[in-house]
Write a structure and sequence with these properties.
Layout (H helix, E strand, L loop, with lengths): L1 E8 L3 E3 L2 E3 L2 E9 L3 H14 L8 E5 L15 E5 L1 H16 L4 H17 L2
Parallel strand pairs: 5-6
Antiparallel strand pairs: 1-4, 2-3
Length: 121
């Protein structure tokens, strides 16, 4: 199952030391399809919402290869890796570079809760 969610970013709100960003006017498009088929099917929703002509656009993804060029062709678009997947890739990198179970790799694992907890707020 693949899903694309299109929304509009609201003005940021300062909550103590942290800045909170919220979205509004969300629309969802889901299909059980292969990646290439889904890209074409989802164009209907992204065009309906004006993604192609937006002044600014951003995508938050899990980093899958097929998502690297999905729907955002503007030079002003920004692609972001979601925080739980940042932690996952950081862990994999640590294991590959320092060796599975090494002290250095474990130090990188300590960072994971910082990433995953922030994303679930």
């Amino acid at each position: 199952m693949k899903t694309v969610v299109v929304g509009e970013v609201q003005a940021t709100v300062q909550r103590g030391p942290e800045t909170e960003v919220r979205t509004q006017n969300l629309s969802y498009f889901s299909r059980l399809a292969e990646a290439e088929t889904f890209k074409w099917q989802a164009l209907v929703e992204t065009h309906r919402r004006g993604v192609a002509t937006a002044r600014e656009a951003a995508s938050v993804t899990d980093g899958a290869e097929w998502l690297q060029h999905f729907g955002l062709s503007s030079p002003r678009s920004l692609a972001l890796l979601d925080l739980p997947h940042v932690a996952e890739h950081l862990s994999q990198m640590g294991q590959a570079v320092y060796g599975e179970g090494s002290a250095e790799a474990r130090e990188l694992l300590v960072l994971q809760p910082q990433f995953t907890n922030r994303s679930s707020r």
